[in-house]
């Protein structure tokens, strides 16, 4: 039937073309037709505040007090976080912080230990 690729985010088969972009009507994700060649295998390099490259499993330290949205909790400067996981998006670090729980952090507010 259709030779269009499935959505790389939600795997929907209902994608369509608009100009030079593929669009998914279910999740709203848009990607260029040129990215089909890469098929999501592009390695994104995520760096900390000092320019060190971060990898899954690294230990990091928070360099600024961070307020937890929707709560009165604060992640204090110097808080160490072990075994991070890198993810796509604006908040590119997924981790668990003792006393707070699962969090997503921006790499610009951490440094590699």
TrEMBL record:
PANTHER family: PROTEIN YJDM, PROTEIN YJDM-RELATED
Organism per entry: Methylotuvimicrobium alcaliphilum (strain DSM 19304 / NCIMB 14124 / VKM B-2133 / 20Z) (Methylomicrobium alcaliphilum)
Domain Protein YjdM C-terminal: 46-113
Name assigned to this protein: Alkylphosphonate utilization protein
Listed NCBIfam families: phnA
Family: Belongs to the YjdM family.
Record domain Protein YjdM N-terminal: where: 3-32
Record InterPro entries: YjdM, YjdM_C, YjdM_N
